[in-house]
């Protein structure tokens, strides 16, 4: 794994915290890590962005951001409203490829979901992933409704010739209901790819020290961790 693209089935579902957990686990395994945020929206200059948050939680990673737009909108819309040039998939691919020459792992965290528009041509994160020949890690919610969104994301990815590494639940509740517990089984079928981890709800509020110590427990060995899918499902068996 050299470049890993992190996307999700929507916004505010834990992509940044999952990216941080993957970075922390990789660092603990002795890998050098870079995190690239192609388009940061909803923040002004000087405010901490998603790449900065990954670095705060995970530790010594190289944090990079290609563009920032103040409105909390899709990158194409935010760029247009700011009167700024949008980010192109080619720019994303070039930046990630350069980082990959200097790091063992490059994590590219998208904005929103896979098909959110980057520019007026309709380019998306999927095009950047295709140019990089990089697999997708899809961050998903645990609750009711996740299966349809996960299946649609997986279908859109495969229609574009992209490989899925798997899915990670961005926020697992302390007291999961029937839907969440059943989804630990059904997400694999919906994605056509393995469930590779689950972060506890509120993981991003932990201290950096506690976050880094716990991150490998939340992710499967494929993601530098020691999380066990079978054991997790047994713990939360739907009954």
From TrEMBL:
Its EC number is 6.3.3.3. The keyword Ligase applies. The keyword Ligase applies. Keywords: Ligase. It is an enzyme of class 6 (ligase). This is ATP-dependent dethiobiotin synthetase BioD. It comes from Streptomyces fungicidicus. The gene is bioD.
């Amino acid at each position: 794994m050299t470049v890993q693209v992190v996307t999700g089935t929507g916004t505010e579902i834990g992509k940044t915290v999952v990216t941080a957990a993957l970075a922390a686990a990789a660092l603990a395994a002795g890998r050098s890590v870079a995190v690239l945020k192609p388009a940061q929206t909803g923040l002004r200059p000087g405010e901490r962005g998603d790449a900065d948050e990954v670095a705060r939680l995970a530790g010594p990673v190289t944090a990079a951001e290609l563009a920032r737009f103040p409105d909390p909108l899709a990158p194409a819309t935010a760029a247009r409203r700011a009167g700024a040039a949008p980010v192109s998939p080619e720019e994303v691919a070039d930046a990630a490829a350069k980082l990959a020459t200097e790091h063992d792992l490059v994590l590219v965290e998208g904005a929103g979901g896979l098909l959110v528009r980057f520019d007026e041509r309709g380019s998306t994160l999927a095009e950047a992933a295709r140019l990089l020949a990089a697999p997708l890690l899809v961050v998903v919610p645990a609750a009711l409704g996740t299966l349809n969104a996960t299946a649609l994301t997986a279908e859109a990815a495969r229609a574009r010739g992209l490989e899925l590494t798997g899915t990670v639940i961005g926020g697992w509740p302390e007291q999961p209901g029937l839907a969440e517990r059943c989804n630990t089984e059904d997400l694999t079928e919906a994605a056509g790819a393995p469930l590779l981890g689950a972060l506890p709800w509120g993981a991003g509020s932990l201290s950096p020290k506690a976050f880094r110590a716990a991150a490998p427990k939340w992710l499967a060995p494929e993601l530098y961790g020691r999380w066990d899918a079978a054991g997790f499902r047994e713990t939360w068996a739907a009954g």
